[in-house]
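Researcher: Next entry in the queue.
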Amino acid sequence: MRKAILLAAAALTLPAALRAEPGLPDPAAVIAALDAHPSVQAAQARTGAARAEARALARGSHEITLSGSYVNRAVDREGHYDEYDAQLLRAVRLPGKARLDREIGAFGVAAAENRAEDVRHQTAVLLSESWWDWLGAAQEARVDRQAVENYAKLLDAVRRRVALRDAAQLEADQTEALLGSARLAAEQSQGREALARARLAAQFPTLPLPASPEPVPQPSLPEAGLAALGQLVIARSHEIAAADAQASRTDAAARRARADRVADPSLGVRLFSEREGAERGAGVLFSIPLGGGHRQALADQAEAEASAARADVTATHYAVTEMAEGDMALARYSFAAWQRAREGLDAQIAALTKLRLGHKAGEIDLADELLGERQVHDAFRAEAQARTEAMRALTRLRIDSHEIWIGEEAG
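Model: Structure for this entry, 411 residues:
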């Protein structure tokens, strides 16, 4: 008893994103599966590349150049002379350019990190979609198997009545026909379940899957409310953060291009020896490219790219806002649809109960009972589908708001 209490207390201290929830896979297994997905690993590798680029920008591309020459000169009536010269030359970044290069690198890292988080987000959505495809198909398969059992029991009862000459053979034939249809539906739903499981296992081979999934739980609206989660979709969007960082990077690159219209000078020293050392010298070297229209054109190009990036930020805000509004609407109406489906199922079950009693009392024809059985079967399937779609929509909203599986909240 004490162990159970300690386990319950430990579960309450876990972050919400790491607690096991009804209908969803173990969050630790999900995080491991996301880490192992190739798209997430590729995004993390690109982040590493961005960090390396930032280091390169901070150091600068200017390096020391060593050059030299050796010659053996022949002079008439004087002989041969060994002569050489050597020089060291290095370009120097003008004031302000190094700072801009560091800004470009830092914003590039921020953009790459947020893109990596967004890839993880999209991969989590893919896992959620595949998961609910599987659980939804399995739920429908359960309904269809139960329908087969119900029709089989009904057929046995009708056959006994036919043997006792209390029912016509036609009633047995009608029941057997419905049983055949139910078996066909069961085979089809079982096939969809197997297909959904195969797709889930192919995309996330490291995610442990039970032999048979749990039934889809009944959905419930989040305590914080749909509107609060919708606001978090926008506030925690890595897509917006990546667009902002990219816009800042292109803006810094545009300022760097404008600064580069004045080229960096190169400074160095030169040593030489001529006529076997009879003439020696040392000097200072200086060079600077004289820029023209090319550098101005590059600056104009960078400015246009910065303007495009700023427009992309606005477009990204629109897209994420649309996603948040869509998530809330889908969750709200999917939940309401499941409630109506549940009410309809309860009504169909109540009607079928009366039909069964009426048929046993001889007041209702078998055809009416068979119709009721088929309607209840359809109502169970409709409720199972609506329940799955409601859970799918609520899970999508929680993923997009970073309440589960991704982001700092999952760490």
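Model: The radius of gyration is 37 Å.
Researcher: Noted, moving on.
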